[in-house]
RNA sequence: GGCCUCGUGGCGGAGUGGCUACGCAGCGGACUGCAAAUCCGUGUACUCCGGUUCGAAUCCGGACGAGGCCUCCA
């Protein structure tokens, strides 16, 4: 088996990976979306990156020996606010919230399916893990009770707070000491906090406008971080192999998860490897609503807001994987165009209908901390060995690797076809049959060595953005002409 | 203010203490009536200043620049 090396944010080093408990397989948890609105392209990065890791792990350890959990945050103040705003009082507020989160989750699934991502093994919803009746079923309330019992949390004015000073190792992931953080002085001071760094595990809810659950501390709802401790604990165990997410989650989210899980379970570590993907910029600028460059996955797939056209999931996927996951990535129209051309070339040469099976060189590249740029270079090397398009071992090997990496030839081809149609529609008064007739007329003119006429037809089509390509049939030597939309 | 990351050729983007990826664009050639497409070939790099070393773009220190986190955020 190839050696898998992964970078661990906690120790800041690349280490050899091995499952903590081979009998339980590889266990991975990745922070998923808060379902209140369309996911943006920055949200797509961890989804794609950890999908590639999931595929790699399944290949290395067997599909049945990898458990991938990606949570759905469906209790959150942004959700509450959004649901309350659109609430018409025709149904209970909780039903309104559920409708909003169901709808957003369906959108999210459609988006990530289009991006070629496999569904995780489990996609737990936070609301299903607040309070579970069976005594043995781990949930948020039970973790909070354990934290209180162990002296790591306290109740104050209906809130339960994590007692940060009670955990000496707090701050290890983010590499910052308590003194430094307090010196930052931008922490939220609240009367119910003993220490400014203490964070909320449970808070009271207003039954009129907020969702809530009955608990030993009154009607309320969980704080942001506790859901991940509960769901990872319930589905993966007290310690598991890999915990992933965006780098901006390192502090405070993951730091607080570690504090909760380790203090509740009495463990040294929560995850053996902490993996964080880098930040995404759009055309060199931070993506933000105020700059007007905020872009959702859906807008990229189904509108012309970015670059004046829509894009297919495969292009977004390749564009994302061209940069190593820990590097910052600049999301540009030029990058999407380049990815489009690369896929066009690969699919032109790769043999169709191949099973998903990676080459050793691809596995080796991915096994080096998910080096996807190196992986892509291996694909280019393979591509350069292909002598006859779609035929021979190299063409089959390229096809197998593309399938393994989650690229979908049919989806890409359908999109290309759609773009052609759109261009022809925009031209108006010309369709594929017309083009076929013009091509035939040009071939006839060429045969008659009437080059003025044949060039005139070619120029006429070129002016409309249709490029002609001549080729000789290798068998008959007959001249054939194909066309494509030149953009 | 504190902490962290990064700075590679025209562009994108890996990697490495000595053999200097890869892709796009450019350039040259083949093919073509001429093109396009395709195929073959090809130049250019490691922000700056010190230090360690036989040797550094790669390690160390500093400067400058970019970004992130410290508050919701992938």
Question: Which features would summarize this protein structure in a list?
Answer:
487 residues, Rossmann fold, alpha/beta, 3 domains, 4-stranded parallel beta sheet, 4-stranded antiparallel beta sheet, 16 helices, RNA-binding
Give the strand line-up of the largest sheet: 4-3-9-10
Poorly predicted regions = none
Distance between the ends: 45 Å
Q: Quick one: how many beta strands?
A: 15
Structural class: alpha/beta
Architecture (CATH level 2) name of the largest domain: 3-Layer(aba) Sandwich
- The CATH topology annotation of the largest domain reads as Rossmann fold
InterPro entries: Cys-tRNA-ligase, Cys-tRNA-synt_Ia_DALR, Cys-tRNA/MSH_ligase, Rossmann-like_a/b/a_fold, tRNA-synt_1_cat_dom, tRNAsynth_Ia_anticodon-bd
Binding site for Zn(2+): 31, 228, 253, 257
GO molecular function: ATP binding; cysteine-tRNA ligase activity; zinc ion binding
Motif ('HIGH' region): 33-43
Structure, explained:
The protein is 43% helix and 15% strand. Helix 2 packs across helix 3, helix 12 runs antiparallel to helix 13 and helix 15 (432-447) runs antiparallel to helix 16 (451-463). It has helices spanning 41-61, 77-86, 93-114, 140-149, 178-184, 226-235, 250-265, 297-302, 313-321, 333-349, 360-367, 372-385, 393-404, 409-427, 432-447, 451-463, and strands spanning 5-8, 13-16, 26-30, 66-70, 153-156, 159-162, 199-204, 220-222, 240-246, 271-277, 280-282, 285-286, 329-331, 466-472, 479-485. The protein folds into 3 domains: 5-277, Rossmann fold (3-Layer(aba) Sandwich); 280-411, no CATH class; 430-485, no CATH class. It binds one RNA strand of 74 nucleotides through helix 1, helix 5, helix 7, helix 10 and helix 12.
């Amino acid at each position: 088996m190839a050696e898998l090396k992964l970078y661990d944010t906690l120790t800041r080093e690349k280490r050899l990976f091995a499952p903590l408990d081979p009998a339980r397989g590889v266990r991975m948890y990745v922070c998923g979306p808060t379902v209140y609105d369309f996911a943006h392209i920055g949200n797509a990065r961890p989804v794609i990156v950890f999908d590639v890791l999931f595929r790699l792990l399944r290949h290395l350890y067997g599909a049945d020996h990898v458990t991938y959990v990606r949570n759905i945050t469906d209790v959150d103040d942004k959700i509450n606010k959004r649901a309350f705003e659109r609430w018409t009082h025709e149904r209970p507020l909780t039903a309104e919230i559920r409708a909003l989160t169901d709808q957003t989750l369906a959108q999210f699934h459609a988006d990530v399916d289009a991006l070629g991502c496999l569904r995780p093994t489990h996609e737990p919803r936070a609301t299903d893990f607040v309070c579970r009746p069976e005594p043995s079923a781990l949930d948020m309330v039970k973790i909070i009770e354990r934290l209180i019992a162990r002296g790591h949390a306290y109740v104050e004015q209906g809130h339960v707070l994590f007692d940060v000073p009670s955990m000496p190792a707090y701050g290890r992931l983010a590499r910052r000491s308590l003194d430094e953080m307090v010196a930052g002085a931008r922490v939220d001071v609240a009367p119910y906090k003993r220490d400014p760094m203490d964070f909320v595990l449970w808070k009271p809810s207003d039954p009129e406008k907020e969702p809530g659950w009955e608990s030993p501390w009154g009607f309320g709802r969980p704080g942001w971080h506790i859901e991940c401790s509960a769901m990872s604990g319930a589905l993966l165990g007290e310690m598991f192999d890999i915990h992933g997410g965006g780098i901006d989650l390192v502090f405070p989210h993951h730091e607080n998860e570690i504090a909760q899980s380790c203090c509740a379970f009495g463990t040294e570590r929560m995850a053996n490897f902490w993996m964080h993907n880098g930040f995404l910029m759009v055309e060199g600028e931070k993506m933000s609503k105020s700059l007007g460059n905020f872009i959702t996955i859906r807008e990229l797939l189904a509108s012309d807001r970015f670059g004046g056209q829509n894009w297919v999931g495969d292009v977004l996927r390749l564009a994302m994987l061209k940069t190593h996951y820990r590097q910052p990535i600049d999301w540009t129209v030029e990058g999407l165009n380049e990815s489009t051309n690369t896929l066009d070339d690969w699919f032109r040469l790769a043999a169709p209908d191949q099973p998903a099976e990676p080459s050793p060189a691809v596995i080796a590249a991915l096994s080096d901390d998910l080096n996807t740029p190196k992986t892509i270079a291996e694909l280019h090397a393979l591509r350069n060995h292909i002598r006859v398009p779609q035929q021979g071992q190299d063409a089959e090997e390229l096809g197998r690797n593309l399938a393994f990496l989650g690229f979908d030839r049919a989806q890409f081809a359908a999109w290309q076809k759609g773009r052609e149609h759109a261009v022809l529609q925009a031209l108006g008064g010309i369709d594929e049959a017309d083009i076929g007739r013009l091509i035939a007329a040009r071939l006839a003119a060429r045969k008659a060595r009437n080059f003025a006429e044949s060039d005139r037809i070619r120029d006429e089509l070129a002016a409309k953005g249709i490029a002609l390509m001549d080729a000789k049939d290798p068998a008959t030597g007959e001249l054939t002409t194909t066309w494509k939309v030149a953009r």
